[in-house]
From TrEMBL:
Xref: Gene3D superfamilies: Aspartate Aminotransferase, domain 1 (3.90.1150.10), Type I PLP-dependent aspartate aminotransferase-like (Major domain) (3.40.640.10)
GO molecular function, one term: L-allo-threonine aldolase activity
Name of the protein in its database record: Low-specificity L-threonine aldolase
EC top class, as a word: lyase
GO biological process, one term: glycine biosynthetic process
InterPro entries with a match to the protein in the record: ArAA_b-elim_lyase/Thr_aldolase, Low_specificity_L-TA-like, PyrdxlP-dep_Trfase, PyrdxlP-dep_Trfase_major, PyrdxlP-dep_Trfase_small
A GO CC annotation given for this chain: cytosol
Gene it is expressed from: ltaE
Key words of the record: Lyase, Pyridoxal phosphate
């Protein structure tokens, strides 16, 4: 494709996006200082902007989404305390069990098959902590958009009863908002509305927003002061981190509304694939992800190889489900090509 020097389209994840020239220039020209001394003006600017976008008092620049979630868990919970997490959540499945390994935090697992747990299940996880048998639930973790249920966006109205119940039961609420701006853009709501419902939010700069590195953990001033100490303990206190934060600033200033284009590309791609008879999951309030089932008995490796031969990289199938993610390095003009290649790969099975 003209202007795009690629031989394959990479739809494994939106994390594969590369920093654009504007970001690279901003990184090269960033004014920096020692951020452990809180003297890096670019990091401070990024943290202030992130906090403002989520309607929070403060934010902390961290190396990754995993680190942001882990620091939130460590700040909200002590050893032997419980955090309510979804059975299919990123925190529970894809973060190396950090909450247990490093925090001694007990996961209290609830069903989140449709993206959010039910209030009944949340209530069931909050058992009477005065009984010596039971772990004390301290935190509810929600994820939006919810990766495993298809990148589904949950509205603030849908989250509200869970957050209210958590608060009533004395739990804090953390939002794994790796892609919360995808949710906000898809549903046309201000991200501050999500921020207002929870005590802390982790947002990823390095996914659909296109920055090369980094996440922000947002919360009130006291929370972020404590989180800063956890970040240092984990070895995440970076010095002239402004060179990284500069790319994050470009991401937050000019890449949020653009996420709608990724959603549109996903919509078009699902339409084309469905038309060709592929078995797509029906995802309400879809964003930038598509999931489809492989024919029964397919060897996932074989399908991944066939796709690669056709010039498309796909997420490695979990069981028989293939994930495709649209992002800013997949031009709109390539969507039809990608669909054709995928259909060819399926037909070759
Ligand atoms: C990617 C992701 C994370 C972790 O972010 P990393 O920067 O890859 O560590 C956390 N939660 C969700 C929902 C994610 O998609």
């Amino acid at each position: 494709m003209e202007g795009w020097d690629v031989s394959v389209w990479d739809l494994r994840s939106d994390t594969v996006t590369k920093p654009c020239d504007e970001m690279r220039r901003a990184m090269a020209e960033a004014v920096v200082g020692d951020d452990v001394y809180e003297e890096d003006p670019t990091v401070r600017e990024l943290e202030a902007l992130g906090a403002r976008l989520l309607g929070k008092e403060a934010a902390l620049f961290v190396a990754s989404g995993t680190m942001g979630n882990l620091i939130a868990l460590l700040t909200h919970c002590g050893r032997g305390q419980g955090a309510v997490v979804g059975a299919r959540s990123h925190i529970y499945n894809y973060e190396g069990g950090g909450m247990a390994a490093l925090g001694g935090v007990m996961p209290l697992v609830v069903d989140d098959g449709t993206g959010l747990p039910s209030t009944e299940d949340l209530l069931g996880a909050c058992r009477d902590a005065s009984n010596v048998h039971f772990v004390e639930a301290r935190l509810l973790c929600l994820e939006n958009t919810h990766n495993a249920s298809g990148g589904r966006a949950a509205s603030p109205e849908a989250m509200e009863p869970l957050c209210a119940l958590a608060r009533e039961k004395g739990l804090s609420v953390h939002l794994d908002g790796a892609r919360v701006f995808n949710a906000a853009v898809a549903l046309g709501v201000d991200a501050c509305r999500y921020g207002a419902l929870v005590d802390s939010v982790q947002i990823c700069l390095s996914k659909g927003l296109g920055a090369p590195v980094g996440s922000l953990l947002c919360g009130d001033g006291t929370f972020v002061r404590e989180a800063r100490k956890w970040r240092k303990r984990l070895g995440g206190g970076m010095r002239q981190a402004g060179v990284l934060a500069a790319a994050g600033l470009v991401a937050l200033r000019s890449r949020i509304d653009r996420l709608a284009e990724d959603h549109e590309k996903a919509r078009r791609l699902s339409l084309l694939l469905r038309r060709e008879g592929l078995d797509l999951l029906d995802i309400p309030d879809a964003t930038n992800m598509i999931y489809f089932r492989l024919p029964r008995g397919t060897e996932p490796h074989r399908f991944v190889d066939l796709c690669r031969n056709e010039g498309v990289l796909v997420g490695f199938p979990a069981r028989d489900l293939v994930r495709l993610v649209t992002h800013l390095d997949l031009p709109e003009e390539a969507v039809d090509d990608v669909a054709r290649s995928l259909v060819k790969a399926v037909r070759a099975l």
